[in-house]
Write a structure and sequence with these properties.
The structure is a single chain. The chain is α/β, with parallel strands linked by helices and 388 residues long. The protein has 2 domains: 127 residues, Aspartate Aminotransferase, domain 1 (Alpha-Beta Complex); 249 residues, 3-Layer(aba) Sandwich (Aspartate Aminotransferase, domain 2), CATH 3.40.640.10. The chain is 41% helix and 14% strand. The protein is built from 11 helices and 13 strands. It has a 7-stranded mixed sheet, sandwiched between helices. The protein has a 4-stranded antiparallel sheet with strand order 10-11-13-12. A hairpin with a 6-residue loop joins strand 12 and strand 13. The longest helix is centred in the C-terminal third of the chain and has 39 residues. The protein is globular, with a radius of gyration of 22 Å. The N and C termini lie far apart (49 Å). Bound molecules: ligand 0PR. Ligand 0PR binds next to helix 4.
Length: 388
């Protein structure tokens, strides 16, 4: 650390240099994040010092948090919804499974030294579930997918046993943007009296704004919790995730006594929490409303269809028909192609693991012109690969 402080001018020169090394989103087709809405940025700055870890000091911010939960409860068909703003999908998933574990432990009072509990998730689950296995010391059993990358309900059922804490289904999978057969999984959860968590980190701000979509919310009786990330398609600032429970009963299993704060209980994973992200999320949700988000989603879906049409013109097919604004392309040598697109053409794309496909996320920072440039470069990169 330097002995004495440096001037503001010098600081900004350092910051500008760092910024130059960062990618600008225009060349990024691999991210589920995007530029936050300017209203969100303004709100974030206004509440920059607000700490939801001690929300008795920040009653106004806390009221906005409660309002966010109510707004989401109304679009996810639940008026008894409880929860809180997390740092994102990872924390929401950890806490949802921790609540399941505690619920089961309190209800069945099992001896954790003798029993190793498990949860059943789709094989397509985000890698946060591998962290969960490690943190909570539980087995994460991965159910098979069908040919369209949806989880097989039969496979899920075959993995359930007396040590199963609960089930997970995905509304908008990370790699393929696919939606599991959630209605059937809800029935499965009900018939086995198990809680069901929906990972809608990505899809939660897409599905409600599509003209038609399968049910994925609290209107299905088996669903006990939902994770949704305003910092992805919600256009809020990072870190903004939301964990929602159907009612207080599940949240209450996360209760921790918090002495010396203005409120004596905490249900969250982190202590100090960003009130700025709460303000940002509240502001952008109010500002856009259902109409605004529908426009955002419409634009991304139009671009998604446009991209599919353009790649089909050069003989490339999507791996599955895009369900939301995630496109996977069945290309030769995806790993080499990705490297080439990055190295020679300065595009950031990603690849799926199994099966391997080129993966593109069509976020609001993209437009038809960028897609045209990308497809031209993709065509050239494919030619380069054929030559080598
Ligand atoms: N659940 C799903 C379905 C997700 O897709 C993700 C993240 C998470 C949970 C975890 O969310 P947090 O990262 O907010 O904890 N999906 C992307 C991924 O990990 C996130 C991402 C965002 C990746 C921006 C790249 C990027 O540039 O692949």
């Amino acid at each position: 650390m330097n002995e004495t402080g440096v001037s503001e001018e010098e600081i900004f020169s350092l910051l500008n240099n760092a910024k130059k090394k960062d990618f600008t989103y225009q060349r990024v087709l691999s991210s589920m994040c995007t530029y936050p809405h300017e209203i969100a940025v303004k709100a974030h700055m206004q509440f920059i010092e607000s700490n939801m870890g001690d929300f008795g000091l920040f009653k106004g911010t806390h009221d906005m948090e409660k309002e966010i939960l109510l707004m989401l409860g109304s679009i996810y068909n639940c008026n008894s919804v409880e929860g809180y703003l997390t740092t994102g999908g990872t924390e929401s998933n950890i806490q949802a499974i921790r609540a399941m574990r505690n619920f089961s432990r309190d209800k069945r009072s099992y001896d954790s030294s003798k029993v190793r509990p498990n949860i059943v998730v789709p094989a397509s689950a985000h890698f946060s579930f591998d962290k969960i296995s490690d943190i909570l010391d539980i087995d994460v059993r991965k159910a098979d997918l069908d040919y369209e990358m949806r989880v097989s309900v039969q496979s899920m059922e075959s993995l359930i046993d007396e040590n199963t804490l609960g089930l997970v289904a995905i509304a908008g999978s990370t790699e393929f943007g696919q939606i599991d057969p959630i209605e059937k999984i809800s029935d499965l959860a009900v018939s086995h009296s198990l809680p069901l968590h929906i990972d809608a980190a990505f899809g939660g701000f897409v599905l409600p704004f599509l003209s038609t979509h399968p049910k994925f919310d609290f209107s299905l009786p088996g669903i006990t919790s939902i994770a949704v990330d305003p910092h992805k398609m919600g256009l809020s600032t990072i870190p903004s995730g939301v964990l929602l429970f159907r009612n207080f009963e599940y949240l209450n299993h996360l209760r921790v006594h918090a002495p010396y704060l203005t409120v004596d209980t905490q249900y969250t994973l982190t202590g100090t929490r960003s009130g700025a992200a709460v303000a940002a999320t509240y502001a952008v949700m109010k500002f856009l409303g259902k109409e605004g988000y529908t426009k955002v989603v419409d634009k991304c879906m139009d671009l998604t269809r446009y991209l599919v049409k353009k790649v089909q013109e050069i003989g490339i097919q999507p791996f599955i028909d895009p369900v939301m604004n995630v496109v996977t392309l069945d290309v030769p040598h995806p790993t080499a192609l990705r490297a080439r697109l990055s190295r020679e053409y300065n595009w950031q794309v990603s690849i799926t693991q199994d099966p391997k496909a080129l993966r593109l996320v069509i976020m609001p920072h993209l437009d038809a012109e960028i897609i045209d440039c990308f497809v031209d470069d993709l065509k050239e990169a494919l030619k380069d690969l054929e030559k080598n």
